[in-house]
From TrEMBL:
This is LRV FeS4 cluster domain-containing protein. It comes from Methylocystis bryophila. Gene3D superfamilies: Leucine-rich Repeat Variant. It comes from the Bacteria. Residues 19-70 form the LRV FeS4 cluster domain.
Amino acid sequence: MTFPSANSSPDADPDAAPLDWLGQPIRCRECDHVVLNREGLCRKGTACVRDRRARRVDGFFRKHPELANDYLQHSYFEVRAVAAKYASVMRLMPLLADPEPEVRARAAQRLPVERVKALANDPEPRVRMVLANRLEGASLVAMLADEDYIVRVNVVRRLPPELVPLAVHDAESEVRRWAARRLPEERLQLLMFDEEPLVRLVVAERLPPSRLAAMAQDEDLRVRFTVAERAPPELLPSLLDDPDELVRDVARTRLEE
């Protein structure tokens, strides 16, 4: 029998019929919670632990969190993942070895951070993302070496500003853009001449006006335009000779103000 995986979740279809995780019609009379159903405490298509859709499973556990512990070993990953959201933290450690990343990630979100550090080396980026958003200190810095750039972006977003310079040589420009957003102002020169124009643009937006002269000859129009918008008055005359009319117009308008 082939079980559904995280890559084939039916939850993307908001109008999905109430089928169970094996694709069969749900029959409430066959459910272990038929008594709850008769009392109106769960409902097929809305709050149902047998449904294949995570939102409906979540609706069930929102009403009955005390039952979540009983479903941490369910065969369907969506049920395990949602149950982990409501179950006792004391029962979550085994889920760190779950075959589905969605389940491991949910457990990693709730367990004490000291218990989940090993997942910084998890094969799935979505799990490592959880760690990037929870770790601190040297453990967080170590994740700057993660192979997935989106994980590294989250690390840079959380690093103390004084440690952000560690990311200025990252191979991925999006990581360096975040570094440019978070660098201490006095360290912005580290990315002033970055090869990626969008990184330099962030620098031009943040540099004190008194330091913008160094970027007035940048090869990218967007950077020079930003310089023209923010430059101190004494720099504006030199921008009247810019090769692009947009930059010249901004400089001229500001000089006439």
